[in-house]
Amino acid sequence: MSSKERAKERREKRLQEISLLRTIPYSDQQRWWSSETIIVVTGGNRGIGFEISRQLAVSGLTVILTARDSNAGLEATRVLQEGGLNVLFHQLDVLDPLSVKHLSEWLLQNYGGLDILVNNAGVNFNLGCDNSVEYAQKVVETNYLGTKNMIQAMIPLMKPSTSGARIINVSSRLGRLNGRRNRLEDVNLRQQLGDLDSLSIDLIDKTVSTFLQQVEDGTWTSAGWPRTFTDYSVSKLAVNAYTRLMAKLLSDQGHRIYINCYCPGWVKTAMTGYAGNISAEEGADTGVWLALFPDQSITGKFFAERREINF
Question: What CDD domains does this protein map onto (predicted)?
Answer without folding.
Answer: carb_red_PTCR-like_SDR_c (cd05324)
